[in-house]
User: What shape does this take?
Amino acid sequence: MVTAPLITIRILQTLHNIEDFVKNKKVIDMVVAPNLIDDHCKISSSETIDRITIFNIQGVVVKQLSSINEDQYTIKFNNFPKGMYLIEIQTQTGKNAVKSIVIK
Assistant: This one.
């Protein structure tokens, strides 16, 4: 029997359950445009961004940016291999959001 590999992402490990996560409103609005990327994308958030972490599809951190202190940020993806990635942002209030992107 073949099983799909489990992708473990730090943000999901901190959750005890989804109900608690929603109840404590640790989710924020985040927009990533475009989500099909040539060389850069712009991230917009409903709150001030403190940290941005980019994971490859295996859940490995490939880039981390800290002390952003803005509600918008542009990330350049020069020299990133093509493929799917996850972008996680954490705000100054400790709230998180995750979006997927594809680098073409």
Summary: The radius of gyration is 14 Å. The helical segments are 10-13, 18-23. The beta strands are 30-33, 36-37, 40-56, 61-76, 83-91, 96-103. DSSP finds two helices and six strands in the chain.
